[in-house]
Design goal:
Layout lengths: L2 H40 L8 H32 L1 H4 L2
């Protein structure tokens, strides 16, 4: 296995992890921003108010994107398994 193959594999793994985490992170950002604006407008400064909506929104997004997550992870894993003989040379 050459150095360039290892670097390429690591780069693809990092890119996939960032690509898969993006929907959850964007959801947390948008919901957190909306709750912060709501708290600023109503002057309700309750610390626990942000957690429940964020968690519910992230669970909803996770359930909605789970088939896509699994498809991407399966494609990546199949690609690695199919390229193992070429990597060992």
């Amino acid at each position: 296995m050459t150095d360039s193959a290892v670097i390429t594999l690591a780069k693809e793994a990092i890119k996939l992890s960032l690509f898969l985490s993006a929907p959850l992170l964007i959801t947390a950002l948008v919901v957190g921003l909306a709750i912060s604006i709501f708290q600023a407008v109503t002057q309700i400064q309750e610390m626990t108010l942000t957690f429940v909506p964020k968690i519910l929104a992230m669970v909803l997004v996770l359930f909605l994107t789970m088939p896509w997550f699994l498809k991407k992870l399966t494609e990546f894993t199949e690609n690695i398994f199919l390229n193992i003989p070429g990597m060992l040379k």
